[in-house]
Amino acid sequence: MSTIHSAAQPTTPIGKTADYLDQRTKVGVLTKQLVRKVFPDHWSFMLGEIALWSFVVLILSGFFLTMFFEPSMALTHYHGEGPASMQGQLMSVAFASTVDMSFEVRGGLLMRQIHHWSALVFMAGIVVHMMRVFFTGAFRKPRELNYLVGVTMMILGLGAGFTGYSLPDDVLSGNGLRITDGVVKSIPIIGSYMSYFIFGGEFPGEHIIPRLFTLHILVIPALLLALIGLHLFLMVLNKHTQYPGGGRTDRNVVGYPAVPAFATKMGGNFFIVFGVLALMGGTMAINNVWNYGPFDPSPVSAGAQPDWYMLFLEGSLRLMPGQGTEWVIGGYTLSLNVLIPAVVVPGLLFTFLFVYPFLEAKVTGDHREHHVLDRPRNVPVRTGLGVAFLAAFVILALAGSNDLIATHFALSINTITWVFRVLIFVGPVFAFWITKRICLGLQRKDRELVLHGHETGRIVRFANGEYIEVHRPLDEHDRWLRVNYEAHKPLEIAPAMDARGVRRKGYMVDRQWQRVSRFFFEDRVEPVTPAELAAAHAHGGHDELEAERGTPELVSGSGNVEREH
Amino acid sequence: MKALAARRHHRAAPVVLLLLALLVTGGVYAVLAPSPATADTASTADIETGKKLFQANCATCHGPNAEGTSQAPSLVGVGAAAVDFQVSTGRMPMQMNGPQAQQKPRQMDEEQTAALAAYVASLGPGPAIPTDEQVDPALGDSSNGALLFRTNCAMCHNAVGAGGALSEGKWAPALWDVSERNIYQAMVTGPQSMPVFNDANITPEEKRDIIAFLVEQREGSAGGMALGALGPVSEGLWAWVVGIGLIIGAAVWIGAKSS
C-alpha cells in the first residue's frame, strides 16, 4: 500500500478526475506527449485551420438546419411569413421549408447564411492551404499520402458544396442540376443510364432531393470527418514541416510546445474564423432562394452561375464552341461540346493535382525525407507549374462570369469569350514562363547578395584615388536562408549499351524521364558554395575591411566560411 | 336544312363560305382586339410644338416626317408610350452611336416630352402612355408578377431585375431605378433588343403584377446587404475579399509574434 501512495495524491476535483481516468486508460501518457509536441510557428501554417474551423462551423450550423429542412419533392402551395412574391406559389416541400426556416424559425436565416458563407470560405481555405503546401514543397516524402488525403478532401468539399447548393430546389440550383444531368449524359455509352440511375428516371424526377440530402448530411460529412482525422493524425505522425532558417534541419523541429503556445493560437484562430463567418452571415445576404423562385425546368435567369469553386466548370462549358462538336455516329450522339469542357478539363486539372508529388519525386530521383520547406523561388519549375494551374483555374472562373464582366465593364460578351478562348491556352504557358523567370531572377539576386552583401551607399576614396562602395555582408541567418537549398540537376541515366555493347532494357523509358527531368531542372541557379563565398570575400577585401569596422558584430562566427584579414 | 344541304356543292359555296369566315374573323377581332388608344387629350397646339421639336432634335436620323432613314427606324405607329419611354429616360435624342442607346439625364422636360409624344402619336395609332392606375404597384399581385417575370423577363434582366448581358455589347439594364411608368412602356413598346409584350401576351393587369414584383424587390434583402443581387459570382468574390481577407489578416497577426 505504501508504495502505491508514495506519489503525491491529487487534491482538487479536476486532479482526482484526471487521476481516475489515468489509472484506467493511461491517458496521461498520450496527453503528455501531445502537450509537449513541438509545432513550428508561421502564419501560413494557420491556413489549413481556416478550412478546419469553417468545417466545424458548417457542422454546427448544418445541424441546426437539418432540424427544419424537409428533403421532399412533394408539391405544396406556399402560405407563410415569407415574401409577398412567394404567396400561393406552387413549389416543392423542400423549397417551402427553406423559405419557412428563413422567415419563421428564429435565427434560421442567420444560420442558413452562416452555413453558406462557411461553405464558400471552407473551399477558399482549402485552396489557400493547398497553395501553401504546393509552393513550399510540403507534399514531398514522407507527406505524399497526407497530400493525397488533402486533395481527396478538396474534391469531397466540391461534392458537399454541390449537393448542398442543390437542396433548396430553387430555379438556380435546378439549373445546376440540369447541367449535371447534361454532363452525365454526355459520357459515352453509360451516360444516359447513369442519368436515369442518378435521378431515378428522367430529369428532374422525384428522388433527387432526398438522395442529395443523404449525401449532403451523412455520407460526405462522415467521409470528410474521417479524412480530417486521418489528415491531422498523419500531420502529427509525420511532424509538421518548418520553413528554412538558422538551426532548422530535416532532423529537428524548431517551434513551440502544443500547450500553451500552439493551442492558444489555434483556439484564438477558431474564434476569429467563427466571428468572421457569423459577421458575414449576419450582414451579407447570400443565396436568397426566394429571389430565384421554386424550381421549374423552363426558366433560367441572367447571371445563373454556380458557387465560386464550381465556376471553373461553368467557364469551361461557356468557352467550348458548340458548332461542329456534337457528332452523331451510327445513330448515337457524342457530345464533345459537353464531354470535353465538363469531364476532360476537370479530369486533367484533378489528375495534375493527384500525380504531381509522384512526378516530382520521379524527376528529381530524390528519395530522402524532407521536413524543411522549400522557398518557392528555389524550385522554379514547380512554382511555375503551380502558377500556371492557378492561371488556368482563374481564367476558367472568369470565363464563367463573362456576362457579369460584360455588364460591369461595358464590354461585348462575344469578345470576352473569344479572348478567354485564346487565353486558356496561352495564359497558363505565359504564367509558367514569367513565373519561372522571376524565380530564377530572385535566385540570382540571392546569390548576388550572399557573395557581395548589401550595398550601403557609402562611397569611400582610398589614398591612391580608388573609389569603392562599401558592401555590408549578410549576417549568418540571412546567408543560411539563401544558400541552404539544393538545385536539382536533370537525371543521369545509364548508357544505352552496357560494356559489352548489348542494348540495355528500359533505356528508352529512362530517356523519356530524363527529358521530363531536363524540363524541370535544365535552368537552375546553384547555391553559393563556401569556396565561392571565400573567393568573393578575398576579391572584395576592402569592402570587408570597411564593413568590419562599421559593423563589427557581423564578423563573429561565420560557420564554415573562413575570413582572411 | 335540306335546301342548305342541296346547295352545298354549288359553285359559289366556297366563295360565300370564305367571305363569311373573313367577316366573322374580322368582326371578332374588332371586338376583342386591344384598342390602342392615341393620346386623345393632345391639342393641335401640342402637336405643332412637338413637330417643331421633332424637326429640331430628331429629324436628322428619323427623317423630316418621322418616316425613318437608313440610320433610324420609322416612328409612324410607335405611339406616345415609345416616345415617352425613350425621351424621358434620356435615351433619345441619342448621345452617341453604340451597341444600344444609353441612358443619360433627360434632355427634354416634361412638357417637351409630352408635345413630342403627341406629335408622334398623331402620325399613326400606337400604344398610349399608361395611366397612373395601370402602373400602381399597390394594385398588383407580386406573387403572380414573380411567376410572369421569371418566365418572361428574368433570362435577360436577372431573377430580381439586377440586369444582365446580351450579345455583342448590348445589355438588359437593371430595373432598380426604372419608374413604374417606364417599365410598363418598355413592355408594350419593346425598346432596343427587348421584345414587345403586347396586351394579348401579357394583359395590362399582369403587367401591373410584374411592376408590383419589381417594386417589392427594391426593399432589399431580408438577409442583409444584397451585394448587387447578382448571385454566386459576387458572393464568391465577397467570400474571398471579406472572409479570406479578414481571416488571413488575423492569421498574420496571430503569427506575427513567432519570428
Overview of the structural elements:
The complex is a heterodimer of chains A (565) and B (259). Chain A has helices spanning 13-25, 27-36, 47-66, 93-103, 108-135, 144-166, 171-186, 191-199, 208-238, 258-283, 289-292, 311-319, 336-364, 380-399, 402-408, 413-452, 476-483, 507-521, 530-539, 541-550, and strands at residues 38-39, 75-77, 90-92, 256-257, 326-329, 332-335, 454-461, 467-472. Chain A has 565 residues and is mainly alpha-helical. A two-stranded antiparallel ribbon of chain A has the order 1-4. In chain A, strands 2-3 form a two-stranded antiparallel ribbon. In chain A, helix 3 packs antiparallel against helix 5 and helix 5 packs across helix 10 (258-283). Chain A is globular, with a radius of gyration of 30 Å. The N and C termini of chain A lie far apart (72 Å). In chain A, 39% of the residues are buried. Helix content of chain B is 50%, strand content 2%. Chain B starts with a helix and ends with a helix. Chain B is extended and about 110 Å long. The mean pLDDT of chain B is 88. Chain B has helices at 2-6, 13-32, 44-57, 59-62, 79-88, 110-123, 142-152, 154-157, 180-189, 204-217, 232-255, and strands at residues 164-165, 171-172. Chain B has eleven helices and two strands, in the order ααααααααββααα. Chain B has a two-stranded antiparallel ribbon. In chain B, helix 5 packs across helix 9 (180-189) and helix 7 (142-152) packs across helix 10 (204-217). The interface between A and B is large, with 76 and 61 residues.
Features:
heterodimer, A: mainly alpha, Cytochrome Bc1 Complex, Chain C, two-stranded antiparallel ribbon, 20 helices, globular, B: 259 residues, mainly alpha, Cytochrome Bc1 Complex, Chain D, domain 2, 2 domains, two-stranded antiparallel sheet
